[in-house]
Amino acid sequence: GRCNAVDLTNSHTTMSAANNSNESYCTFTLASDVTAGGLPSEEEIAKQLESNDPKIKRHALKAAIMAMLGGEALPRILMQVIRFCINSDDKPLKKLCMLYWEVVPKYQEPTSDEVLRAASGGQPVQRKLLPEMILVCNALMNDLNHPNEYVRGSMLRFLCKVKDEEILGPLIPSIKACLQHRHQYVRKNAAMAVFHAHRLHGDTLIPDGPELMDAFISAETDIGARRNAFLMLYNESEELAIQFLAKNLDDVVKFGDGFALLVLDLTRKACRRDPNQKSRFVRVLFQMLSAESPAVSYEAAWTLISLSNSPTA
């Protein structure tokens, strides 16, 4: 996606709102000294990326990101990043690489003949992934299979920002495998990555997403991972979410505040659509009235009051 404006005065650089389908929201944190004295040229950035000093590489990659956000194409930099940065173990450089993958053009520019043919009512222009992105996908997959759980988790969080089916597709088996990881940080981010992929490309990439998440949540013990799994069921397969809730009515209060608030949101949604559903949720609502969390007990009381207008209240 293309980002419009950059505020360089603060540590947080926030893009303006997206205006069409080709634009997206981006929020980056970049040091302001990157632009001191002006941005380096493409040739200078390419040379700095070859340095053995991670600090120099970081500075060059920040400059490349800022230049691209300013409208510069920098076609040479993609291969330099792949060659000299993508396999680095330097954590700040890895994070910058993820920001770079967000802003870098991933598709070939259509030829003039393709544009003219589409404009004259012919075949629409087909997006073609850059050949270099195959190498990028391999690097992303390596991080998804990395022995360090925080590298895996960070990559799963990054994939929640990727919308391209051609990039997500090859990574789906690795994302699914992360649902079985021993560390909860990996599992909870894997659940969000599955939710993201299913929401965007469920029919083609991960049609079994709801069933996969239903099996996952039944065996999950971590509060955060369970909450993320229920979030997907709530949005993608409401009936499975209600079934899980019915099986675990006595344990809902032990599942954490985030889970409880999702249950209350589901209750309001289901009962407003069909007031006859209220009897399925009354028990859990009264349980949450006595919850230790003020937020949960308040939301439970508000939910009961909001549903009292229904004929069956």
The helix/strand order is EEHHHHHHHHHHHHHHHH
What is the mean predicted local confidence, pLDDT?
Answer: 86
Helix content: 55-70%
Question: What's the helix count?
Answer: 16
Q: Mind describing the biggest β-sheet?
A: 2 strands, antiparallel
How many beta-strand segments?
2
Which consecutive residue ranges, at least 5 long each, have pLDDT under 50? 1-22
| First-residue to last-residue Cα separation | 48 Å
Radius of gyration: 23 Å
Percent of sequence in beta strands: under 5%
Shape category: elongated
Q: What features would you describe in this structure?
A:
Helices cover 59% and strands 2% of the residues. The chain is an all-alpha fold. The longest helix is centred in the middle third of the chain and has 18 residues, at 184-201. It is elongated, with a radius of gyration of 23 Å.
